[in-house]
Amino acid sequence: MHTVTAVSPTTILFYGGLSTASRRQAASDPTIYAYAPLSPTPFTAIPPSTTNPSPPPRFGHTALPFPPNSPTNSILVINGFTQDYESSIFRVTTSPNATWSRVNSTSPSPGVLHASYGHATAVLYSDATAAIVAIFAGTTTGGSSTNALTVTKLTHDTATDIVTSQHYNPTTNTPPDATSSSAFTAATNGAGVMCMYVHGGIDTASATIHSSLYSFCPTEQLTASTDLGGSNMFGNELFEWTSLVTHNKTFQPVPRYARAGAGRSWQ
User: By the 8 A CB rule, do 195 and 185 touch?
Assistant: First the structure.
């Protein structure tokens, strides 16, 4: 339940995960590790910053390169479990040291980022200074699964090098059941719109393992100026869930959980 994040075509960052057999104890290692296969010394531990050290180590988080659409030396770490259920986004830059900063809202967000680990995350839009990210489901406070959804807009002020966020909880049609540890990825649909795809997962309350396969897509192409706060204006939903198993009876995925994820792929 650690993350492996490609920040460029030649560099991968490793972070977090469990270091014991107990799911209730977070990893004790806060180190960011880099793998650069073309380097003479491909594996390195990135030394921590003395002025902006890491937050508590965690597992069950997700991580994305930021900015997502160009080679970078920073990632965003979303939620996870430390000694509690996290509701947070941190940015860590890795050159020359691992320097951490919390991503805060510029003003009170219209929505909330639900505390979770084992959630799914996908980039639905990105440019050089902004990204729109979907964060779905996971295990939440009390140990139960959730199907809570947050759509977060992230903005990078290049003058100050500060990343800020705004969270939204859009109205949608019927979402998937509450799950944790689903597999997920981001890819375009037939209309060329970037979507999140979520498969399987486990309901931690009933121990039911799911076989569902859903897409979560904007109903129109997102841009940096999309009004996420107006997503249910006049009943016109900006996002919709589609059960791909229902639409394609010839494909019945096997129930499974213990997630794998790629919230953003290099193209």
Answer: no
